[in-house]
Automatic annotation (TrEMBL):
Interacts with OEP61/TPR7. Residues 99-164 form the J domain. Keywords: Chaperone, Endoplasmic reticulum, Glycoprotein, Membrane, Protein transport, Transmembrane, Transmembrane helix, Transport. Its main location: endoplasmic reticulum. It comes from Sphenostylis stenocarpa. One of its GO terms (biological process) is SRP-dependent cotranslational protein targeting to membrane. It is a multi-pass membrane protein. It is found in: Endoplasmic reticulum membrane. Required for integral membrane and secreted preprotein translocation across the endoplasmic reticulum membrane. This is J domain-containing protein. One of its GO terms (cellular component) is Sec62/Sec63 complex. One of its GO terms (molecular function) is protein transmembrane transporter activity. The keyword Thylakoid does not apply.
């Protein structure tokens, strides 16, 4: 019985230990992350972003940020641990070491006469003949009598001095740290113990596995449904115009699950009339086009209208129920657009190339959604290939002000951006009619906008020149500069109701053949991860080229300085194509800002293979291979090249011809500081 009580007493200690093993390190990690957070603000400080409220840290928001599900769970577990510690501490007081002097209330080494005197006094108080209380009788027999015996009986005293107990050596016992009722296998307790073992050891892991597998079978690691990826893959076309990307984007399975209510019919009808000009309807057959639009699946109709409400900033027309659907659509939009981008650049042909045209369309749609700018605003107007879209992302700027500014020979966004701040302020105040406070907001946003620089090289490691079939290494540094000195920042997006980080896509593509040779997502937010990735990549590259330790250390140190200075390394490989001269284009596309994208030309000269054997297989991501010709035929039948607006990256035949006639740059080298910069050098054989 005593053994079972001791085992039961150990159960709280066992539970406390099991809880403390994961909770203590996890808590320390969370506290370190919280302490390492920078207090410097990385979001836009203009009045429009402030009025949006998404960056305003009210008391309620601060409490809600702290009282997350994980934090509350962690706090509850700590409360349980504190209760267990208190219980164990209280219980340990009850389990005291046998000390006869302490029991009799004597000092250690007391004389025998004092021992007998104290014993007689305690006997009067606790002896059964004097005190009928059962607890007094138990205390007298188990403690007072044994303590007196241990100090007066020679044998008992010898046992106490040797073994710490008057009864002599105590047997060694082993037990299980479980509650006492589970250790009693007689009667119903045996069944309870069996159920406990089955539940904890079998049923609990099984339930966790079933929940995990059911979720993982439905969602990807980016919390996007597998059905959405399948839909995007099969709807993606090589000649998909930017104006048609919307039709693919809204067919996500997440959006098909949006509830369709009869009460939404009237608000959607009103919204349709407000955004009808943005729906690419044929005005010659407007009635038939409208009927065709409303015959689509109701979820598709609602999704497209709500996305257009964001692009046209017609948020006042939304009912409360539509507001919740609107937020749901915009919250998942960045993840879906990222997966749609991956479906555009995923290898589709035998060479492992993706498609450039739809990739650019996806990025342009992402920019318009984040900045709440209509797709029609990207049409080339007044000598500006980008249209008025970049202007509209600035606060307090409308199409009327843009027209006024254009009369002063400022027709492109880049011209406005490159102006002196005082000159720009005078133009906006005197010509545009803006106030000084509004101009200050514009200056704040312009200081937030990134200015990108590309430095790209291609080489075959360990060999001179590039021959067909070689594995070519592309090495690119992307540098970002801002007027306010930040590196990673949240974009100015007052009409997008959620916080959104900037992401960039680096593409190496052949604009003539519409092929993407290499692609990679780039972020400037996590400097620690960028330092680790760049250091590891440079170290592996230097070791592969046979460099010594000193050279490798120097190269790694230079890479670390570049990353701290606002650069990110893009490193990848692709297989050299057949012999010939190739005029490629390196794109760096931002998914959040308009007018900040950069591109530079890169010329490659691939020689005929003279080295024996091949140096590697085709480097391509997993994915089915299909012939471009089949897709091209299908798309050309639909006439999808006749898009409604021209992307700023579209190149006509005249530009391609001029590119071919220009002197060729050094093989695989390009440096870009601004759009339109020319590469220099000559081909070397």
């Amino acid at each position: 019985m005593a053994a079972s009580e001791e085992n039961s007493a150990l159960f709280p200690i066992f539970i406390l230990t099991i809880m403390a093993i994961p909770i203590v390190p996890y808590t320390i990690t969370k506290l370190c992350r919280f302490a390492s957070k920078k207090s410097k603000s990385i979001h836009c400080q203009c009045s429009e972003c402030s009025r949006s409220g998404k960056y305003h840290k009210s008391i309620f928001k601060r409490i809600s940020n702290v009282s997350t599900c994980s934090n509350m769970t962690l706090l509850l577990l700590w409360v349980i641990m504190i209760i267990l510690v208190y219980y164990i501490k209280t219980m340990s007081r009850e389990i005291e070491i046998f000390d006869p002097f302490s029991i009799l209330g004597l000092e250690p080494g007391a004389a025998e006469s004092e021992i007998k005197k104290k014993y007689r006094r305690l006997s009067i108080q606790f002896h059964p003949d004097k005190n009928p209380d059962p607890e007094a009788h138990k205390y007298f027999v188990e403690y007072i009598a044994k303590a007196y015996q241990a100090l007066t009986d020679p044998i008992a005293r010898e046992n106490y001095e040797k073994y710490g107990h008057p009864d002599g050596r105590q047997g060694f016992q082993m037990g299980i740290a479980l509650p006492q009722f589970l250790l009693n296998i007689d009667g119903a307790s045996g069944g309870i113990l069996l159920l406990w073992i089955v539940g904890v050891c079998i049923l609990l892991p099984l339930v966790i596995a079933v929940v995990y597998l059911s979720r993982s079978s439905k969602y990807t690691g980016n919390y996007v449904m597998h059905q959405t990826l399948s839909t995007y893959y099969y709807l993606m076309k090589p000649s998909l115009a930017p104006s048609k990307v919307m039709d693919v984007f809204i067919k996500a399975a997440e959006y098909m699950e949006i509830p369709v209510r009869r009460t939404d019919d009237e608000p959607l009808q009103k919204l349709f009339m407000l955004v009808r000009s943005e729906l690419n309807l044929d005005l010659k057959n407007i009635k038939q086009e409208q009927a065709k639009f409303w015959k689509q699946h109701p979820a598709l109709v609602k999704t497209e209208l709500l996305v257009q409400a964001q692009l046209t900033r017609e948020l006042a027309a939304l009912s409360p129920s539509l507001q919740s659907d609107f937020r749901r659509i915009l919250e998942t939009a960045p993840r879906l657009l990222e997966e749609l981008m991956k479906m555009a650049v995923i290898p589709r042909n035998a060479q492992g190339h993706g498609w450039l045209r739809p990739a650019i369309g996806v990025v342009e749609l992402s920019q318009c959604i984040i900045q709440a700018v209509p797709l029609s605003a990207r049409k080339s107007t007044g000598g500006s290939p980008e249209g008025v879209a970049p202007f509209l992302q600035l606060p307090h700027i409308s199409e009327t002000i843009i027209k006024k500014v254009a009369r002063k020979k400022v027709r492109t966004f880049q011209e406005l951006h490159d102006m002196d701040s005082q000159e720009r302020a005078d133009l906006l105040i005197q010509t545009g009619g803006l106030s000084s406070a509004e101009v200050q907001d514009i200056e704040t946003v312009l200081d937030m906008m990134p200015s990108l620089t590309l430095d790209v090289t291609c080489e075959t490691e360990g060999e001179e020149g590039m021959q067909e079939g070689d594995i070519v290494t592309i090495h690119a540094w992307i540098n970002v500069k801002r007027g306010n000195g930040l590196i990673g920042a949240l974009p100015h997006a007052p009409y997008y109701p959620f916080q959104k980080e900037e992401n960039y896509w680096f593409l190496l593509a052949d604009s003539v053949s519409n092929n993407v040779w290499f692609s990679q997502k780039v972020s400037f937010m996590d400097e620690a991860a960028a330092l680790t990735a760049a250091s590891k990549a440079i170290e592996e590259s230097m070791e592969g080229s046979g460099a010594n330790v000193k050279e490798t250390s120097r190269a790694v140190a230079e890479a670390v300085e570049k990353v701290k200075g606002g650069s990110r390394l893009v490193l990848g490989k692709f297989q050299a194509p057949s012999e010939g001269n190739y005029s490629l284009t390196c794109y760096c596309l931002c998914d959040s800002w308009l007018g900040c994208d950069r591109r530079t030309n890169l010329k490659l000269k691939i020689l005929k293979r003279t080295r024996a054997g091949t140096r590697g297989a085709v480097l391509a991501d997993e994915g089915p291979i299909m012939e471009d010709g089949v897709e091209e035929d299908e798309d050309n039948e639909d006439g999808e090249y006749d898009d409604d607006y021209e992307s700023e990256y579209s190149e006509d035949e005249e530009d391609d011809q001029n590119t071919k006639n220009k002197p060729q740059a050094a093989n695989g080298t390009a440096n870009k500081r601004g759009q339109g910069a020319e590469s220099s050098g000559s081909d070397e054989e």
